[in-house]
Amino acid sequence: MQLSDEVLPLLKGVDLFASLSDDELCQIAAVTVSQNFKRDETIILENDDSAMALYIVASGNVQVYVTSADGRETILSLLARGDFFGELSLIDGEPRSASVRAVGDMRALVIRREDFLMLLDTKPGLAKSLLVELSTRLRRSNKQISSLASMTVFGRVTGTILSLGEQHGIRVPQQNGTGAIVVRNRPTQQQLADMSGTTRETVSRVLTSLEKKGLIAISDRDLIIYDDLQSENS
Predict the structure, then answer these.
(1) For the chain, what percentages of helix, strand and coil (3-state, to nearest 5) are there?
(2) What is the pLDDT of residues 172-197, one digit of tens each?
(3) Predicted structure pTM score
(4) What is the side-by-side order of every strand in the sheet holding 179-183?
(5) Is 133 exposed, middle or buried (0-12, 13-18, 19+ CB in 10 A)?
C-alpha cells in the first residue's frame, strides 16, 4: 500500500509506535497492507496457526473473545481505531490465543510477521514499547480474571464499565465541578454481559441501578461514567 495522508497519522497514534520517528514510521507504512472486513466476519480464529500478522484497527471496531468447551463466548476486550491485536503469535509463532471478530464493517492495517520481526531487529524502541504494551495487557487480563472469580455480578459489571472508561474513555468536565469519562459508541448490553460473565438481563438491571444512583448516564451511543462510580467500587 502506498503511503497516504491517513496512514502516518494513524501509526503515530498507536502506542506501540509512539517512540518512533517519522522516517521510521514511513518504513513501517511501506510494509503495511490495508484489509477490509464485513460485520461479524472472523478476522482471527482461536488456535489457528496460519496467516500470522499484526493488525491495527484503522476504522470500525472489533471484539477479542475466547470460546469455552460448551461454546460460550467471553469477550476479553473491545478495540477501536488505533488499537492493535495479533501481537502474541506474531512474536512466538504459536497458535492464536483468542478469536477476533469485526463488530461492524471495519478496516485494518496489516503487517506480516516476517516484516514485523525485521522491524524489531532494527528498532530497539519498538521492542521496548511492545514489552510495555504486553505488560499492560497482562495486568489487565489478570485483573479481569480476578474480577470474574471473586466479585459479585454487580461488581463484575461495574468493573467492566470502569475498565472501558480507562481504556477508551475521554475525560470531560462537568458543570457541577465533578469529573466524568465518556465512552463513545458504547458496547451493547450483550457485549457487556459477555465481558462480565453474566446475562444481558442482569446487565440491564445493573445499568438501571447505576443510572438511578447518578453514577452513570446513557446518552444516545455515549456512556458517561461519573467519578463517584470509582469511589463506589473501590
Answers:
(1) 45, 25, 30
(2) 876 666 789 999 989 999 999 998 88
(3) 0.76
(4) 170-173, 179-183, 222-226, 216-219
(5) middle
